[in-house]
Write a structure and sequence with these properties.
The longest helix has 45 residues, at 78-122. The radius of gyration is 26 Å and the shape is elongated. The chain contains 6 helices and 10 strands, in the order E-E-H-H-H-H-E-E-E-E-E-E-H-E-E-H. Strand 1 (38-41) and strand 2 form a beta hairpin. The protein starts with 37 loop residues before the first strand and ends in a 26-residue tail after the last helix. Helices cover 48% and strands 12% of the residues. The protein has one domain (36-266): f41 fragment of flagellin, N-terminal domain. The chain has helices spanning 54-60, 64-74, 78-122, 128-149, 190-196, 211-250; strands at residues 38-41, 44-47, 152-153, 156-157, 159-160, 167-173, 176-182, 185-186, 198-199, 207-208. It is α/β, with parallel strands linked by helices. A 4-stranded mixed sheet has the order 2-1-6-7. It has a two-stranded antiparallel ribbon with strand order 3-4. Helix 5 crosses helix 6 (211-250).
């Protein structure tokens, strides 16, 4: 029996490591504001149904009818039921921000991976294969950032590629309904754009990254983390205030629910930092 010829090993093709996927590059949208206006009502993120009254549209949501039935059984006051809906909405808003924070932490890790890839390429002792391998790892990190940028919570996007409409939570404050905004994290900043469209080695498309461009992306990332934490603190503070009012009602105290404005030109909510 003749010996079978030994198959030749598949040659290592470094060009396969240089195939950038343009879909992995985050690009800004041409529109001024992306997406549709959304609110948290009934503990869920939902679109605004202009056919419903303001209270059901922006606070109790589709659960309004169920809440009314529960009130008849539990003899719960209307004010208490509305405050419980507000509390549920704030808790949902906090969950949104928690999911944003987790995704941001992972994005920060991938930026670190890209920085390490650049260090590997800059190492004078690195051979060509090591530099190609670093570029391949860089591409994987960029694709993972793209995947993370598409993260959602309750079918609502957590990130945007440009200015976008926030998710609004209606909260009673000092006799008025105030709209708190849960902002999406905008990843269309210059540093992010350069990193996600760049490379660390090879002849493929894209600009060569340097430590300055990666440092700028890290700075933008830290700004998003700070913004995320400030929003979290605001919602937790308002939730604590609502819980105190609910406790007061349960102990026999009273609370007057503010009415929504009847003039549609003014908008249903007072917006301290954004036009309604």
């Amino acid at each position: 029996m003749k010996n079978q010829p030994t198959p030749k090993p598949t040659p290592w093709n470094p060009s396969q490591l240089l195939q950038d996927d343009n879909r992995a590059i985050i690009r800004p949208s041409e529109g001024q504001q992306q997406g549709f206006a959304k609110v948290v009502a009934g503990g869920r993120v939902t679109g605004i149904d202009t056919e419903k009254p303001y209270l059901e549209r922006m606070v109790t949501g589709a659960s309004h009818a169920a809440t009314q039935q529960a009130n008849q059984v539990l003899t719960k006051s209307r004010e208490q039921a509305v405050l419980e809906s507000v509390s549920s909405n704030l808790e949902a808003g906090i969950q949104i921000i928690d999911h944003q924070e987790t995704a941001l932490a992972k994005i920060g890790g991938k930026l670190s991976d890209i920085a390490l890839c650049l260090n590997r390429v800059k190492n004078p002792k690195a051979d060509e294969k090591e530099r190609f391998s670093a570029q391949a790892t860089c591409l994987l990190a960029k694709k993972e950032i793209k995947n993370l940028s598409q993260s959602t919570y309750d079918h609502a996007a957590l990130f945007s590629n440009g200015p976008s409409k926030p998710i609004t939570i209606a909260v009673p404050t000092q006799g008025e309904w105030e709209g708190l905004s849960v902002e999406k994290c905008d990843l269309s900043k210059p540093g992010f754009m350069v990193v996600n469209g760049g490379k660390v080695y090879g002849s493929g498309p894209g600009v060569f990254l340097d430590h300055g461009s990666i440092s700028r992306a890290f700075s933008e990332w830290r700004t998003l983390c700070v913004q995320n934490r400030m929003q979290w603190s605001l919602l937790v503070e308002r939730l604590q205030a609502i819980c105190k009012t609910l406790k007061k009602i349960s102990q026999g105290g009273s609370w007057s629910m503010p009415e929504f404005p009847k003039d549609p030109k003014l908008g249903p909510l007072r917006r301290p930092h954004r036009n309604n």
